[in-house]
What we know:
Layout: E1 2-18, E2 24-43, E3 48-52, H1 64-75, E4 82-87, H2 98-114, H3 121-130, H4 134-139, E5 142-147, E6 151-155, E7 162-167, H5 174-182, H6 192-201, E8 210-211, H7 214-220, H8 223-233, E9 238-241, E10 248-252, H9 255-264, E11 269-274
Parallel strand pairs: 1-8, 3-4
Antiparallel strand pairs: 1-2, 2-4, 2-5, 5-6, 7-10, 7-11, 9-10
Helix pairs in contact: 1-2, 1-3, 5-7
Amino acid sequence: xxxNAYAKINLTLDITGRDERGYxxxxxxxxxxxxxxxxxxxxxxxxxxxxxxLPYVPVDERNLCYKAAQSFLREFSLSGDFHIDLxxxxxxxxxxxxxxxxAAAVLRLLCDRFGLSTEDERVLRVAASIGADxxxxxxGGLCLAEGIGERLSSLPKLDGYTVVLAKTAERASTPxxxxxxxxxPQKKAFTTLSFLEALRKGEDVTPYVSNxxxxxxxxxxxxxxxxxxxxxxxxxxxAEMSGSGSTVFGLFRDAEKAKTAxxxxxxxxxxxxxxx
Length: 276
């Protein structure tokens, strides 16, 4: 059994406050894009085992794929021997949700194997226990994500844009980025609701592409503002960082401009994608 695990970008990311546990609350637009890992699930072996094409990706309990299989079997009081093979194409620690998407792919494959729906409340509970954005990857498409990212509302697909992803080797941990954000004296304006209104009216959404974490991540990853400028200079209609970084994306109405930009941008990783 095999499944694609698609990446996502945050078209907006507003930080709206904190909950009683201290977690930052979001109002964000998650958009699934065509860049994908491949997850294969095979029965056999001894318990849960995992392999990956990248040597630095852990293949034990630290991997979210492993946690997904383990938590799923425990939740439904099931047993079985499963080997998970993971082909990574989504950069790690990049703000693209690769690990969460891989975990969601494992849950989808296990649901297929045992005849369960991915909309089953118990499956969604398992997904949320692995990571706040794992439930999104069970749903896919374009969603408004609220709370810590677990409250999802599906939206119509955003058409007419080509996405260019760009990333250097720089990375910063999500906790470090949030700590840097908390120390910033000024915060950005909220744009998610304005984006949604423009989307509803069929108007230009690019003025509302924004991420509250960008300035904080830029302190830790100086490549972020440089990549944003490069993408805009190369014709992007909007450019912003995804998640907590350090991947930057450009939205292009002109697909040929997007392809040209991808050839000319100065970075280690660059990919031309479309919305799913």
